[in-house]
Amino acid sequence: MQDTAKSSHLDRRSEIIRITTGLFLESGFAGTSMSAVAKACGMTKASLYHHFKGKDALFIACITEGYKDSLIELEAISNDASISPPEKIEKAVDILYAITIGSPVGRMSPLIAEVSSSFPSVAKSFHEGYIAPQRAQVDEIVAQGVSSGHFRDMDPIIFSHLLFGPIVTLSLSREMFASFDDLDEHFPVDLLKRGHKEQILATLSRKAASNI
Known about the structure:
By secondary structure, the chain is mainly α. It is built from 12 helices and no strands.
């Protein structure tokens, strides 16, 4: 009985997060009240506060738990001994593009930047709950490639920005110009992702090291 109640609570929490993510995207942080969330979720405001202490806590849940599945996928790829490090990097890039650009929570990138300036706890929670562990998984894949001789050793901070920077920039750009009818012509995700993979693999290649 206790396990059933716990499962029900987690399911309800996930549903609240899903609905609220949509509200944040539609109305922004300031324009989304706890009352509006409660109404959209078909519950009382008091019940909502039972799940989340406040709007900032709810926002943090949306941006950290919303990215949780991508972390699980990255970890699975990192631990998969059946695929080579270059293949792992390509799969990792696919996951990062999918979550950052192709998902509702990924579309919250501009909002995360905006809210973080007023709520430092949001920035800290997002970094500790998603950014840091995400980068740790990618660092592990690169380390495997160095160990196996597929990759050259390079500064992890430099590589991190080479990998994540273009994805975040593309996400922000697509949200900034979302009203464009020809958005995909200006910011073609598949084309840019393919070119990004090629550049990342070329940068990691041991041949690149000999040209420096």
